[in-house]
Specification:
The protein is an alpha+beta fold. The protein has one domain: Gcn5-related N-acetyltransferase (GNAT) (Aminopeptidase). It is built from four helices and seven strands, in the order E-H-H-E-E-E-H-E-H-E-E. A seven-stranded mixed beta sheet has the order 1-2-3-4-5-7-6, sandwiched between helices. The longest helix is centred in the middle third of the chain and has 15 residues. This is N-acetyltransferase family protein. It comes from Ruegeria haliotis. Pfam families: Acetyltransf_1.
Length: 162
């Protein structure tokens, strides 16, 4: 397994991972699939804050972060996303990606990482808790997908504490 910065040529593989999650699960509230061109632009924009996990030359997961909210008061806070292909789950790749992403975030002066997690994804809540994220809130019924109202669970980790 290799964790490395994403490259624009990884965009199709990343689109395959995220679009399967969008179309087949309640993990994300969106129903709009991502196009490789927009993912490649995100990779260029986020640079070192967009990582991939690669196994035997195949991209099987990614982690990235972007602004949590606009305005200078939130300059040191980022919201992250992590997604793995089904065949990559349960093998430690998610933890490896998140540990590296946190290293990058600290180096870039990020103080807090935020996770916004669908209540339909209890494994992601447990995953983040195991990494030291604390549940700081739950927003009832803010998500709607496939006729279901879903809660958004907010978790955060203050990076300076380590």
């Amino acid at each position: 397994m290799t964790i490395r910065p994403a490259r624009p040529e990884d965009a199709s593989a990343i689109a395959g991972i995220t679009n399967a999650i969008i179309s087949d699960t309640l993990v994300t509230f969106t129903t709009d699939e991502r196009h490789p061109v927009s993912i490649a632009a995100d990779i260029e924009l986020r640079d070192s804050a967009f990582l991939v996990a690669e196994v035997e030359g195949e991209v099987v997961g990614f982690a990235t972060y972007g602004p949590f909210r606009s305005g200078p008061g939130y300059a040191e806070c980022r919201e992250h996303s992590i997604q793995l292909a089904p065949k990559a789950r349960g093998k430690g790749l998610g933890s490896a990606l998140m540990n590296r992403l946190q290293e990058v975030a600290r180096a870039e002066g990020v103080h807090v990482l935020i996770a916004g997690i669908s209540s339909a994804n209890p494994s992601a809540i447990a995953f983040h808790a195991a990494l030291g994220f604390a549940k700081v809130g739950q927003m009832p019924e803010v998500g709607f997908k496939w006729g279901q109202r879903l809660d958004l669970v907010l978790m955060q980790k203050i990076l300076a504490q380590e």
